[in-house]
């Protein structure tokens, strides 16, 4: 793309035939689209600020492309967050235009982004996100087996996106009024009283800046052992506490 940008205005003078110019222009357009597809499908955002203006100029000047659309209030939101905020239909129209007409690619892209979000949030509440991951596996398997139509897949994947973004089940007891309490509840066989005791104790004894400081971490682990009496359970609960910024 950079090489083409350097010579695009002088291809005739450089000796290229009309056929070659059209072929090269088509290749550049193709690989710009491929880059966008991979970027979106991977769920990652690359920092292209350094040459974004040059790239925009290249596309606008030498390649036929749709006008860029400003979605300023959504610039910093992930695909999953956008699905929850504006709906999956609008997300496909505004964010996945380069995949227009390719239902499989759209389905894979949305599924990959939801999966990525689950992986990132998993440590906050392993039990909850494992259930959500199983639901996602089921939906993807149904789509690949043609057990559900494209529209049905989008509806179900949107429901999964809402569950992932909520980070909590719909039927959690009222006293579990924070994500941390609900995470403890979900991973302690839904023992509400034990979850609340751990929450209260940890918030009472946690030293300032305890994460990553072995002596301070052991203080919390010692208190957990008094409540749980099992090292494996202590390790499991401690990893949840460490992942939740609430603690």
Short description:
The chain has 247 residues and is mainly α. It has helices at residues 2-7, 18-41, 52-62, 79-86, 88-95, 103-121, 126-144, 150-166, 179-187, 192-205, 214-228, 231-243. It is elongated, with a radius of gyration of 25 Å.
Notes on the protein architecture:
This protein starts with a helix and ends with a helix. By secondary structure, it is mostly helical. 66% of the residues lie in helices and 0% in strands. The chain has three domains: 2-62, no CATH class; 72-166; 179-243, no CATH class. The model is unreliable at 64-73 (pLDDT under 50). The protein has helices spanning 2-7, 18-41, 52-62, 79-86, 88-95, 103-121, 126-144, 150-166, 179-187, 192-205, 214-228, 231-243.
Strand content: under 5%
**Which outline best applies?**
elongated
By oligomeric state, this entry counts as single chain
- Termini Cα gap: 48 Å
Write down the Rg: 25 Å
* Main sheet characteristics: none
Mean pLDDT: 83
Number of DSSP strand runs: 0
**Low-confidence residue ranges:** 64-73
Order of helices and strands: HHHHHHHHHHHH
The helix-and-strand class reads mainly alpha
């Amino acid at each position: 793309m950079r090489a083409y940008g350097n010579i695009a205005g002088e291809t005739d003078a450089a000796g290229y035939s009309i056929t070659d110019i059209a072929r090269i222009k088509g290749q550049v357009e193709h690989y710009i689209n491929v880059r966008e597809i991979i970027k979106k499908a991977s769920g990652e955002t690359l920092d292209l600020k350094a040459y974004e203006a040059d790239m925009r100029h290249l596309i606008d000047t030498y390649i036929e492309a749709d006008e860029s659309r400003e979605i300023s209030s959504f610039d910093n939101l992930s695909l999953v967050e956008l699905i929850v905020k504006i709906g999956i239909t609008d997300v496909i129209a505004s964010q996945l235009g380069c995949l227009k007409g390719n239902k499989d690619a759209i389905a894979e892209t949305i599924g990959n982004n939801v999966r990525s979000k689950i992986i990132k949030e998993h440590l906050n509440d392993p039990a909850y996100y494992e259930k959500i991951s199983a639901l996602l596996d089921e939906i993807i398997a149904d789509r690949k087996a043609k057990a559900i139509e494209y529209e049905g897949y989008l509806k179900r994947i949107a429901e999964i996106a809402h569950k992932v973004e909520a980070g909590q089940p719909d039927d959690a007891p009222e006293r579990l009024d924070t994500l941390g309490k609900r995470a403890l509840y979900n991973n302690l066989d839904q023992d509400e009283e034990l979850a609340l005791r751990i929450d209260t104790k940890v918030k009472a004894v946690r030293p300032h800046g305890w994460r990553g400081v072995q002596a301070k971490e052991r203080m919390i682990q010692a208190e957990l052992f008094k409540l749980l009496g099992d090292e494996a359970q202590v390790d499991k609960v401690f990893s949840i506490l460490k992942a939740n910024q609430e603690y």
